[in-house]
Structures are given as structure tokens and as C-alpha cells.
Ribosome-recycling factor (Wolinella succinogenes), 186 residues
Amino acid sequence: MELNEVYQYTKEHMEKTIDAMKRDFATLRTGKVSTAIVEPIRVDYYGTPTPLSQVGSVIASDATTLVISPWEKNLLKGIEKAIQEANIGVNPNNDGDVIKLFFPPMTSEQRKEIAKDAKALGEKAKVAVRNIRKESNDKIKKLEKDKLITEDQSKKAHDEVQKYTDDYVKKIDDMVKSKEEEILKV
């Protein structure tokens, strides 16, 4: 393994951490409803737990309403049941053709709570970035121990990995701040 491979590993994994945090952020409720809220929901489709998005279309018809149109009408009851079991804070409204989810406007307490969740997701991502830094630094130490790089190269490599870490932690902080503002905006 060379230093370039260590750098590549570090960047790739830190970028994956950012992507994972973005996916997590998508499930958080903000002022307007997002279809990502129902992504984790699984519907019993002929005995197989299937993502809701694969048994029907999910559309945000306005800022507070999601409309779920199943591709098979016989799935309406199953979708309704799955939504109730998912405990996402709303009751499904089944009109025989589609299921509508009406999300009430969030209270300031709810907004603060969700903002806290966003902050926690950011902290989780920062821990992941720091763990990647540790793994990369361990790889650099091993290269030095195996006499594949000099002590000076090792020091520079550690500094470079720290620079990546600082950059990604700053990205995470910026994303959390932006998400908090989005959540708290009335």
C-alpha cells in the first residue's frame, strides 16, 4: 500500500460518510413534507416486505400532503397498515383509489426536536470521519514501521489526513447548520 492509496481510501470513505448523512437528513421532516419520510416503510407484497416506492407512486402534492397511488388496488389495505405500523406521526386517509397522508404544520417544539436529531446525525458523521482518520493514520504508521516511507513522509501524511478530516468535519458542520435553519424556518 502506498500513501496515495491511503489518501484515496480516506477521501472515499469520508465522502461516503457525507452521503450517508445526506440520506439520513432526507428522512428528517422539515417545513415541507418529503417523500423520503416514507422510504423506510415496507409493505407486505405477497408475503415479501417491499419498499413502499416499489408498490406505488409517492408524490408530495403540496407542502403538507403525500399521495400514495398503489399500482395494484388490492394493496391499499396493506399500505395503510404499513404506514400505521411505521408510526410516522400521521394516519393514512384511504379514499379507495389513493392514500393521502396529511402532515399537520410542525410546532416549534417539534422543530427544535428534529433540529436536535439533525445535530445528532451530524455528530455521528463526525465520529465516523474521525474513525476513518484513525484507520488511515494506522495505515500510515504501518507503512513507516515496515520502512516503506520515511518518518518525514509519515509526518506529512498524518498532516494530510488531518487536513482531510478538518475539511470534512467543516462540511458536516455546514450541512448541519443549513439543515437546522431549514428545519427551524417557519
